[in-house]
## 1
Amino acid sequence: MKINDDQTRYNITEEACQISNFKTSRIFFLCLISILLCAVITNVIHVNVFHPVSYISSTMRSSSSHHPSISASSSCDSTIVKATKMAICLVGGARRFELTGPSIVKHVLQENPNADLFLHGPLDQNAYKFFLLKTAPRIAAVRIFDPHRIAETKMQLRVLSSGDSPNGTQGLLQYFNLVEGCLGLISAHESRHNFTYEWIVRTRVDGYWSAPLDTSAFQLNGYLVPAGSRFGGLNDRLGIGDRATSAVALSRLSVLPVLAAIGHQNLNSESAFKAQLAATHVRAKEATLPFCTLSDRHYMYPPGRFGVPVAAIDGGGRLSGAKCRPCEAVCTGKCVEKVWRLLDKGWGWLERSEGSLGLCNATGPWEEGWEKVFDRAAGEKAAAERRKVEAVDLAGCERELEGLKKKANLWDAPAPAEICRLGLVDSVL
Ligand SMILES: *[C@@H]1O[C@H](CO)[C@@H](O)[C@H](O)[C@H]1NC(C)=O
Ligand SMILES: *[C@@H]1O[C@H](CO)[C@@H](O)[C@H](O)[C@H]1NC(C)=O
Ligand SMILES: *[C@@H]1O[C@H](CO)[C@@H](O)[C@H](O)[C@H]1NC(C)=O
């Protein structure tokens, strides 16, 4: 019974991929005849034929909600994924963006040159570093907003825990608002241009990518999240899904009343995410992905059962969003095995797949000489970008940020001069 169901789903998925495939070759053929004609027809095809994928996936979701253990592998062919309409949503503050930005541009954005970038981040003294996104292939929208305190309702205070987040419930609400706001930007862009995306990739400004985001991460029947770092729920440091599934997964703030209504309490970010997908019958799929979350936070070392391991940035493995920093590892080989066995699988446990994992002693601030460690791991080009951000002056910053603004379809942010002044003048006064 289960196997049959699985089989059916797999066939549907194949079909959905073939629909796209057919469409792609048709577009290609028509392009040969006339480039002009192609522009018109691509438009028509996008609007009229793109619905099957999201339709199929939403049907599958409702039919599969009763046996969530089934796992059908259904990633689409890479050339097909790259030819579809894709939105990449990047959220968060730019604190260390001089280190993470170039890796995101190279491994996420340039790897999917057809994708539209949506940036949603707070206005602060680091926001000027977003100018590094100027080399992104396509920029749909940039929203940099002045963060305000979000009023906390009794319901929210009950559903959410204040424990794990550095800024308590308020920190969680800010984060959920950032994520859901990105969905708002995407929807607005879609209705302005009269089409819908097939895929939405949601990722973080503080993600450091060591290898390309490859197309095996695009899977139809479910929502893809990184493995490990579950913290009592599901790792929410990245998510990939089709349009319908992503709409559900990104609605983190507006789903809270639903979670409250079914009696959830005291959730952290990860357990709220898990509860939200379960409540809306979206199946999560875990995958190991080549990025880590660059963090300045301090953590106990060595981590205990419910501790947080901090990986050295230059291990080269697929860290799936685990915390990392540029450090000379204090723990490798047998030492890592020992720490790793102790970690609780449902908490800070870190998925390992390849590379030589090293752990940092992250009890204090980043060590002296971390720049050298970073440059060694990231390579000369990334090192040059890092130095460029460090050395940029007001005029250079404005010039770069104006370039970003010009390239963006929508600029919902203060003037570049203001963002640069906040980071380069006001912050040192
Ligand atoms: C927490 O709040 C402080 C000040 O209110 C702010 O500087 C910091 O960025 C916040 N941290 C997070 C993770 O939101
Ligand atoms: C948007 O697309 C629909 C069909 O999908 C069409 O009926 C409508 O006229 C289009 N609107 C604009 C403004 O192009
Ligand atoms: C970790 O680093 C701190 C200083 O930042 C030091 O006091 C401590 O002994 C170190 N722990 C281990 C296990 O090396």
## 2
Amino acid sequence: MSNLITNEKSGPGRYFVVDDAGLTSLVSTILLAGSDLATTAWERELMTWFAEHDQNVMGPGLIGFDLDEIAWQPEKFAEQQAFVIRVIDAALGRHRWESLRAEPKLAPEQLRRLRELVQSYRVEYVEPAKRWVWNTPADRIWKCPVHNVYCHGQGCQICNDR
Ligand SMILES: [Zn+2]
């Protein structure tokens, strides 16, 4: 099945499609890089939000996302967008890819597509007081002791992908 990664507010054509295996590897590479780079509460929340896109829990073909689902904070948008780009660049540099079960062959192309989407998202799109829509309680943010990546309520995406 396929999953759509979109940025609908920036106009039609701003999306790409990933299959189920591709989405797992895309999210895993982001978690490996971003979990090491995250320092602020928002950055840890963002990684937890990515972690929730785990098809081992959510089911295949159900977990694409739109960049507008991220709880951007307008007053901090520039630094938050820069953080996401920094995470993607670290992932493109194969940050801790040796932790993955298999070489994520499609991840470089997907990460480049995601990078373009993130760059085309604008602060004007952010609604005031935007909140995360997720299942993990904010006081339950935790990291997998094996992979040192942020997890969701049902565990670690990289552990689940075994
Ligand atoms: Zn794990």
